[in-house]
Every structure is written in C-alpha cells, then in structure tokens.
Amino acid sequence: MNREKLLNAAVILLLLAIPLWAHMAEEPFLITLATKVAILALAGVGLNIALGIGGLVSLGHAAFFGIGGYAMGILAAHAQNYEPLAEWPMLIEGTNQMPVIWLVAVVASALAALVIGALSLRTSGVYFIMITLAFGQMLYYFAISWTAYGGEDGLSIWVRNEFPGLNTLVPLEFFLICYVILCAALWFAARLARAPFGLALSAARQCEARVETVGITPYQLRLTAFVISGAITGLAGALFADLNRFVSPTMLSWHTSGEIMIFVIIGGVGRLFGPVIGAALFILLEHLLGGISDYWQIYLGGLLLIIVLYARGGVIGAISGREVAHD
Amino acid sequence: MTDMTDPSGAGQVLKVSDLSKSFGALQASKNISLDLRAGEIHALIGPNGAGKSTLIKQISGELRPDSGSVSLLGRPVDDLDRVARARMGLGRTFQISALAMEFTVLQNAVLGALGARGGVFRFLGNVMRNKALVAQAEHALERVGLLSDAKRRTADLSHGQRRQLEVAVALTLQPKLFLMDEPMAGLGAGGSQALTGFLDTLRHEAPILLVEHDMDAVFALADRISVLVYGEVIATGTTEEIRNNAEVQRAYLGEEEPV
Amino acid sequence: MSLILILEQILNGLQFGVMLFLMAAGLTLVFGVMGLINLAHGALYMVGAFAAAIVAAWTGSFVLALVASLAAAAAAGALVELLVIRKLYDRDHLDQVLATFALILIFSEGTRWVFGSFPLFLDVPSYLSGPISLPGGIEYPLYRLTIIAIGLVVAAGLFWLIARTRIGIQIRAGESDREMIAALGVDISKLYTLVFALGAALAGLAGALVGAIQSVQVGMGEPVLILAFVVIVIGGIGSIKGAMVGALLVGLTDTLGGVFLPQLFGLFMEPASATSVGASLASMLIYILMAAILLVRPSGLYGGQH
C-alpha cells in the first residue's frame, strides 16, 4: 500500500473515530465539527471532479451548493408552514423527508449545472473562470432579492429534517448519514477517475488536441463532468443547510466558491482525498485560529499563498509525492 | 495540376481542391490542389513559412479554409470538425507532440483505442483493465517498438520515443489515412532510419501525407512529392521529376547542382 | 415616467459605467499584457478609498485625498507585484486565481484588523456638492457629473497613453507577443510592474471617487470587481476599447434596468409583486446580458486574441 492510500485510510477512519468517541464522551460540539468536515468535503469532492480531473476552474460552484441548500430550505419551509409550494398544475407540497429533499437538491443542481455549463463551456481559460463566477453571483443577488424566502436574512428551519428509521436530532446519527454519503461519493469519484470517462476527461485537461484527434469531443466530456460535479456539490449544500437549519444567500457567494476551492487545493487538487483533508484542515484552522484571533483568515490566506507558490500538490502531494499512475 | 496517372480520381483517399486561406493580408494558401492515393506516401515539402502547417490544419479540420474543398474517401468534409474527421479515419501526428504527459505510455495508447471503439461515457469499470482496449493499445505499441516502455510516464520519454508514441496512438484508430507533420524532427540518425523503415511498411495499411524537412527520408519514402512555396504548390510529381525540376531547385534547394 | 427622470438615470448609468471602466481597464490591461487574472483588484479599489478617507480627514483637502488614493493604490499594487504577482506569470490560471484570492483574504482581514469593521467617512467637498442645472431642466448632483468628467478624462488619457507613447507601444507589443518584446530589449519586469501599478492606481481612484457617495469599508471592492469581470468578458479580455464599451453597457443596463424593470412589471402586475420580480430580474440582468453576448461572441465583443 503506498503512502497516499495509507494517508487516505487514516483520514477516513479518524473522521469516523472522532465523532464516535465524542458521542461517548458527550462532546456534541466535536460531532458537529466532524459533520461540517464531512459535508464540506462532499462539496469539495464534487468540485474536484470538474476541477481536479477535468481542469475546469469553476469559480461559481457555490451556485450549486446554494441551490441544494435552498432546495432544502424551500421544501422544509413549506412543510413546516403547511403551505403547498404550488397548487397548479398539480399540488406540490413541502416535505421534511431527507431522501426526497436530496433528490430535489440533486436534480435542481444538476439542471442548473447543465444550463450554466452548456453556456460557460463554450468559452475556455479565463473567460470560463469569469463566467462561472458571474453566474454564481447572479444567483447570489437573485437570492438576496427573493424576499419570499428570506432574502438577505436567509431562511430558518425549526427542526432538522427526518430520515426514515433514524433520529436525525441525535448529532451522531446525522453525522453518520453525512459520513456514509461522503464515502459513497468518494467511492463514485474513485471509480469515475479510473473509468473510460475519467481517462478521457483527464486527457482533455492535459491535451485537448489529442482527445479531438482520437475522435472524442471535449465539450461533451466537460459538460457531463460539470453536471455530475454540480449535483454532488448540490447534495452537500442540502446537507449543510440541514446541519445549520438555516440557508442564506451567503451559500451562493463567491467567497463560498473560493472556500470550496481552497479545501480542494490545500488537500491536493486531483487527489481523491484532497477535499477531505482540505476540509478538515480548514475547519481546524477556523476553530483553533478563530479562537485566538478574529482575523484568522489572514493566516488562511497566507497558508493558501504558500501552498500555491511553493507546495503545489497540497498536503497529500507533500506527504506522498507524485501521483502514482492508475493501475 | 491535372494528374495524368490517375485521371478518374479512383483510389483517392484524400482530395484537396483549390484550397485558399488568408490571414489578413497574408495569403497562406493559394488555390492548393493535391490528392493522396491508396498505398502511397505523398510528401509535402517546402521552405519554412511556405504554409505547410496551415494546409495540414485545413485538412485535419483545425482551420476553415476561405474557399476550396477537402474530401475524405470521396466525401466532402468541409462541414466536419476535427473530431468528426478523426472519426472518419483521419490519423494525425503533430510536429510538437500532442500527448497527455501525466499518463503512462499505455494510457495514451488506450486513449486512442477508446476513441476508436467508443464507449467513453462509461463511469464505472476500470479502463486500464479493459482487455479489448488494452490489447489494441499494446498491439499498436508493439508495432512501433514501445511495448517495453508501456508503464513509463510519457513525460519521461525521450523526444524520439514520444514521436513513436504519437504514431502508435494514431495506429490504434486504424485510420484510413495519415497526416504526419514532421515526424522525423529531432530524431537522431538511428531514430530516423527506424521510423523511415516503419513508415515504409505502414503505407500499405493507409496512405500517408507526409510533411517533412528531412530530405533523405523524403527521397527514400515518397512515391510523389508536392512542393509548396509561398502558399502555392509549384510542382507535383515523382521523386525523379521533382529532383530534376528547375523551378523547384531554384525556389527551394537553391541554385545548386542537380542532386 | 418623465423624460427628466430617464435622463437622470442615463447620467447615473454613465457615472456607474465610467467608474466600472476605471476598474475594468486595469484588469484588462494586466491580463492583456501579462496574461494574469487578478482577483485582488478589488482590494486595490479599497486601498484607494481608505487612503483618500484618511488623507481627507487629515488635511481636509479632497484633491489631496484623490492624489493619495492614486499614490497609495499604485504603491500597494507595485508592492504586491514585486512580492507575489511576479511569481505567477508562468503559472496556470488556477494558481493565479488561488493566489490572488489569498491576497484578497489577507488584504480584507488586514484592513479590518487595522481599521475595524466600521466604515470610514469621506465627504464630497463643499465646492462639488449640491445640484447643478443642466439643459432640459435637469437638476443633477454636481459631484456625480464631476465623476463622469474625471472618468472620461482618464479614459482619454489612457487611450492616448496606449496609442501615442512609447510605453503604450510596449504595452501593445507586449499584448501580442510577450517573448518578442523581451528579445527587443524592453525591460519586461519594469514594464510589468508599471502596468500593474497603473491598473492599481485607476482602481484606487475609482474607489476614492465612489467612496464619497457610498461608504468606505472593508469589502467595498468586491461587488465592483465582479462587475468589472463581467465588463471585460463582455468587452473582450485585453481590449481597452472593449472595456469602455462593456463598462458603459453594463453601467447603463444595470442602472436603467433597476429603475425601469419594476415599473415595467407594474404595468401588468400588482405593485408589490412588480417591485420584487422587477428587482430580482434587474439584479440578474447584467449576467443575462453577458450570457447572451457570449453565446454569439465567445471571446467578447472586441476580444479574440487570448
């Protein structure tokens, strides 16, 4: 087993062990932190498919994170108010059932990613970065002006949504839901990277001309990757909103997009567990440094700068060196 | 130029008719016509800046000509982009290697096989364990002599080996014709000889339109040569005819004794 | 909906557009000449505004405040270029995005640390305050008119610089072929620092000018930055002319849309919904415009080189 795999195993086990211990030691706050790590890691896993494998620098991924969050917020708000969402052409009621909410979140984000991706991928390079940024901001301002669902103040949900058979109010149980979803996403991302699709997508990142001359259209590859990526990040958004029982336009801002990208980069872009390690480090920094100084983001900026300039492979790159080619 | 040896046009795998392309004031291609027939190696030579790359790009689909037409296997392909023409069977190698540098040699070859066979949109299943694709890739690598290097990182290959890999990837497509842009460039004497020998056998599988500066290779391999100067084909003919063509000597080889 | 109102809003749109141009010009120059995307440009806007506020409070002179904004932003820009940006020219866009995003964090939190979260005050000087009567019966704030004038003068100056001076030639040459001008003996490092500082100065000036109408606080540069990106995407990255056209287009669309869309919807909707739907649509209008333009011209109106 190489170093990267060992590191990955350690991380995923630690991520499970800490909340289990915290549950027994009755430290619910730690469980909340771990849940946050799992959810943000999930958002990063989504982004990493587009960014790490596909090389698509999407600075607007918060759009999908926020759409997932608002999917939860809107459905749950209507459920708790006993008001249907729509009565015509058919009765659509709110719901507080997580599986349904997740389905809506995934479908909504996937559709948004399809539209945004279809338009944005017609450009490349810097144009692509700026367009994705602009679309994210578009949704951000839209959410602020949409006063029906809280506008700038956001939307609060009184009670965490339900999952059949579990008591989601127990921190450990909600954590386990997020953890399992994260593991499933990691499994899927790993399979994707090794699959024909992953090979072609990675090749398109490295040398577009080569892909075209073997008869594959890069646009289709990238759009597909973008949609999958958006859907996973959207699911993370729904979970995040459920964790905080709150959704606001901030989930759609470009700062959030930047943060998700930061997790991925700090951990190691393109590495399977990059987002997990990055999210863990980010949350750690937020709580350790944040406790010391209100201005901890200066240090985050400094760390990011150092990594970008001198340690491009992120934490995983630093520990385990160059990526081993797929077997 | 009408070609007396094949007036009917049968056996023409590639036909370029009256291709013209300008970049602003610069006319890179002026009414270029040529063709490529089954079983032949047709070399395209000319001084630097003659417009060879521009011509190749118009044939492959990377550039759109201002006027004129390109036909592959008897079909006009002017509406088709690079990807579509590759699918029709146009194999291409690049002057500056176009390879995925992070991949292993085998992965690049498998990419080619994947493009040839289809099935890109599969999300599960390990592509490098797909027997059919790997076999096809390994076969191509073996033909160019790179099989033993299959697990090496492409970035670690020597220049000559990258050339070989380019040819291998093109081979996995089982193309109907090859467009090769200076495959000899940067190869030492041994490498050039090996590649020359290889291309000689390759012509029977698929004809080759070969852009080259290496005159030894050109004279050894070419059935026909077209000379491109300032965007125009000034002569097309057999090796003998071109060598003895005064206009060509003046324009390209300089005022020298006939070779 | 009187003609006067429309004309006033057009002037507002022009004012907004001219300020956006100052931001966008720097961004597009830096990208055109150095191939670098700089997310921290908004921070330089903020630096200019803060410098102006401090100097205005200290000396009481608005003119000195503007000079200070130019100087401070240029200095900050030069410093950042020498320390960080320099290392990014050869990197890919992802690295540039991340590194400049890191700079935003450092600048923003750093400013908050030094100055706190409360806004500073920068007042419109008394000789520029108050309305001025324009032909057509319009009473328009003198200060806003001044901003339009200053912006147009700076734009003209920039066009002259690019078209007629030696530096301008170097900049234009650098945009088409970076390696070539190095080979011709131009000191690339100095040119780059100069271009970056110039862009920063323009942003700082914009920040100071706008800071007198809005507030001077941390993060003020970010909404403007995003819009500046939209401007240069619409105009074509690397084109100053594109930046001007894009900026005016965005400025006018945003201002006029924000005012008139709710009214438009008010024609066939009840007032409450009209306002909210209109406002929502207005906030998205610029992005819809950008998407529409890019569908037809993927490199922007005057782009196509990069």
Automatic annotation (TrEMBL), chain C:
- Kindly give the membrane topology term recorded for this protein: Multi-pass membrane protein
For the keyword Transmembrane, the answer is yes
- What broad class describes the main subcellular location of this protein? membrane
UniProt keyword annotation of Metal-binding present: no
| Places the protein is found | Cell membrane
Using the record, list the residue span of the signal peptide; answer none if the entry has no such feature. none
InterPro entries assigned to the protein according to its UniProt record, in alphabetical order: ABC_transp_permease, BCAA_transport_permease
Q: Which family does it belong to?
A: Belongs to the binding-protein-dependent transport system permease family. LivHM subfamily.
Entry protein name: LIV-I protein H
Q: Which organism is it from?
A: Phaeobacter italicus
What taxonomic lineage is listed for the species of origin? Bacteria, Pseudomonadati, Pseudomonadota, Alphaproteobacteria, Rhodobacterales
